[in-house]
Amino acid sequence: MLGNIITNKDRIFKTAISLFSAKGFRGTSIRDIANEMNISISNIYHHFGNKEGLLIAILEHSSERLVKELKEVSELDLPPREKLKRLVETHIRLAGTFTEETKIFFLDEEHLSKEGEKINRNIQRQIYGFYQNVLQDLDEAGLIRCRSIKVLAFNIFGVINWQLRWYRPEGPLSMDEIIDEMFSFIMNGVFGTAEQNQK
Fold first, then answer.
1. In degrees rounded to 5, what are phi and psi of residue 169?
2. What angle do CA 177, 180, 181 make, to 5 degrees?
3. How far apart are CA 14 and CA 179, in angstroms?
4. What residue spans define the domains of the chain?
């Protein structure tokens, strides 16, 4: 019995991701999810409470591994420039494995409740913190000059998010090629010139 409950919850979760990604959060009803799975609406309410409960569950699931692995990179004993590169690579590669979830939150973040917004802000704060810390190390080492580490961290995060927004696995560039292009762009923006980036 327990196995069936876990399986049903997982199926509901995956079906919601697929439908939210295809039709949007507002365009998908609990009934749509139930009909897609041929189950009762009460089954979904039992596991997730309501539709926003599903959205929050997707947010937490898709960000849990990202935060964990970015934290591990941030704690490595590496030169700050190499650490920044590893952060960017880890961020892009992992977020690229959650393409449907990423699409959902680009389009439907505004539909989070106050509770959902609080959870989302906490996740974003952790991710920004990893970037701010390594940028602070770069600044203290004299490798970058900027008026605001916070603004620079937001800019890098924005570049990564836009890349994830247009990335398609079937596109002409591989993930490795995209990471190289994005990191080159970020580094040239951070350090000023390509020549400086080679020092």
1. -55, -30
2. 85
3. 28
4. 1-49, 59-197
* Cα angle value 187/130/73 (rounded, 5°): 85
Q: Which CATH number fits domain 59-197: 3.40.50.10490, 1.10.357.10, 1.10.630.10, 2.60.15.10?
A: 1.10.357.10
Which of 117, 48, 160 is closest to 15 using CA atoms? 48
Reported as a single tens digit per residue, the pLDDT across 71-122 is 999 999 999 999 999 999 999 888 778 888 887 877 777 778 888 889 889 9
Long-range residue pairs from 80-84, CB within 8 A, at least 24 positions apart, any chain = 80/134, 80/137, 80/138, 80/141, 80/143, 81/138, 81/143, 81/187, 83/134, 83/137, 84/131, 84/134, 84/135, 84/138, 84/190
Q: Which residues contact 66 (CB under 8 A, 6 or more apart)?
A: 91, 94, 95, 98, 127
pLDDT higher than threshold 70 for residue 4: no
Terminal-residue alpha carbon distance, the chain:
62
Backbone angles phi, psi at 93, to 5 degrees: -65, -45
Please, are residues 94 and 162 in contact by the beta-carbon 8 Å criterion? no
- CATH number for 1-49 (one of 1.10.10.60, 3.20.20.150, 2.40.50.100, 3.60.20.10): it is 1.10.10.60
Q: Is the dihedral of CA 31, 32, 35, 39 positive or negative?
A: negative
